[in-house]
Amino acid sequence: MGVKQIHEVVGRLGTMIEHYSKFTPVSLSLKSLLIFGETAPASKSFDFLKYELPVRFANIIREVQLLPNVLKKSKPIKHICLLYEETFDTLLKYEGCSTHPTSTVSRFTDDIDILLQKHSNVVEVIALGIKEIQNCDSWSEYQELQLQYFLDRFYVSRIGVRTLMNQHSMLYGPTLCNIQSHVGSIDPDCSPLQIAINAYSYSRSLCMQVYGRAPGCDIEVYNCVDKGSASGSFNKIDFCVDATGHPSTKSYLLENQMNCADLSVKGKDVTFCYVPGHLFYIMYELLKNSMRAVIEKHTNDAHLPRLHVFICNANEDIVIKITDFGGGMALNVVEKTFRYNYTTAVHSRNLQPAVLNFEKNHSVNQVTLNDRMTYEVKSEHNDSSSIAGRGHGLPLSRLYARYFGGDLHLYSVEGVGTSALIYLKRQPQDAHELIPLFNHTSRSVYENNSQQRDWVSNSHKTLLEPSITS
């Protein structure tokens, strides 16, 4: 291709990116995704995604283009920008295409699978490059806020497009979801208790491998909704597993688990409509952090204080509280925990190889809950495994919670411990996607070179960080 042709292609692509970035992405609900997956043919999914995906990619590409030069010139951002532009160009091939012949839809599905694979290491690429950028002499505090603002929006956009592409691939691709009750990656009867036990099992196994010991855990489930109006099953559960791994009674919740020793469970199992892979990611990250904190705080103690997990099924929300006695954090540290590349691990660099080795050897990419139910968390744990100890786990967990209208908060008592609260929408019609929108407001964050203070205090830095929900 000659220089003139290259300029023509680049110019055409830039024009189309600007054109599509003017459209507002469609914020879907879990209910609409569920109904669509149960009833719509592949052709309908193609008709929707051939326009929706370019809109979402164009919106986030425009934000990448407005990043400060020190960011845009960095190798990881250059790589991501090129990857996203190539992806946008691939999707443009289907603009105006009809579903006839059917081979068009098949080619689109094949391209979706290829794109999912190409984008699988995006988080790792960015995580590895951020440290280099942050250590630049010219790096300012406001540029740091711009970076945090961008990463929140970029990553939640990534979660959204991967969710849509995974849905299409699992419903209409050559490798269909092997769980009959699932609709693509969505489980209409997702059990937070089952996922909590599974996340504990994996976290405990990792902790035992790295430290040689792990704290036990007590899980309690509360149903605050009338049985007549509640969704899901409410089977009475009351069992414990001793320190050697022997359960007090047989339970389907313990089948095919790695290590559920020193666990007690009480309450009634509840279910709601959700993406199990997203919830597993959140709980696995939080339980790993809690176990590490407890062990590092009580290194010389003979007995480790137990973790406590409370699951509450309420009218509007599913609320999950994870509490540890790992020494807690000061307020200024809590405020930093959701910053990318910030970690409270004492020996985070030394932990990375152990975590990566464990998650690779134990196939965390596909987690088996029991003989009746497995779920894919491949895309989520590509994010988790590849960035172990690099300070992405908590901010990404919060984005997974926020993606369908929930949230994640940390509350800590310095010297005592920390509680993490996960809020999730109980009703699928209330669980709408959170999608970044490129407009004048977001543009202004990148175009301003500084932010003037509007509060004064000698004890705190007073720059107000742009919020993902602004």
How do the helices and strands line up, and which of them pair or pack?
Layout lengths: L2 H18 L9 H10 L2 H24 L3 H4 L2 H18 L10 H16 L3 H13 L6 H32 L14 E4 L1 H20 L5 E7 L12 E6 L21 E6 L3 E3 L1 H22 L9 E7 L3 E8 L6 H6 L11 H14 L4 E5 L2 E4 L1 H9 L6 H11 L3 E7 L3 E9 L14 H8 L23
Helix pairs in contact: 1-3, 3-5, 3-8, 5-6, 5-7, 6-8, 8-14, 9-10, 10-13, 10-14
Polypeptide structure, described:
It is a single chain. The chain has helices at 3-20, 30-39, 42-65, 69-72, 75-92, 103-118, 122-134, 141-172, 192-211, 276-297, 331-336, 348-361, 378-386, 393-403, 440-447, and strands at residues 187-190, 217-223, 236-241, 263-268, 272-274, 307-313, 317-324, 366-370, 373-376, 407-413, 417-425. Strand 8 (366-370) and strand 9 form a beta hairpin. The longest helix has 32 residues, at 141-172. With 470 residues, the chain is an alpha+beta fold. The protein has 2 domains: 3-176, Up-down Bundle (Butyryl-CoA Dehydrogenase, subunit A, domain 3); 187-425, Heat Shock Protein 90, CATH 3.30.565.10.
Strand ordering within the main sheet: 3-4-2-6-7-11-10
Biggest beta sheet summary: 7 strands, mixed
Name of the CATH architecture of the largest domain: 2-Layer Sandwich
SSE pattern, N- to C-terminal: HHHHHHHHEHEEEEHEEHHEEHHEEH
Continuous helix count:
15
Query: What is the class of the largest domain in the CATH system?
Result: Alpha Beta
Number of strands: 11
> What kind of oligomer do you see?
single chain
The CATH superfamily label of the largest domain reads Histidine kinase-like ATPase, C-terminal domain
> Which runs of at least 5 residues are low in confidence (pLDDT < 50)?
1-8, 365-379, 384-388
CATH topology of the largest domain: Heat Shock Protein 90
Percent range for β-strand residues: 5-15%
Helix proportion range:
40-55%
- Report the average pLDDT across residues: 86
Number of domains: 2
Distance between the termini: 44 Å
Subcellular location: Mitochondrion matrix
GO molecular function, one term: ATP binding
Main location: mitochondrion
Domain Histidine kinase/HSP90-like ATPase: 274-428
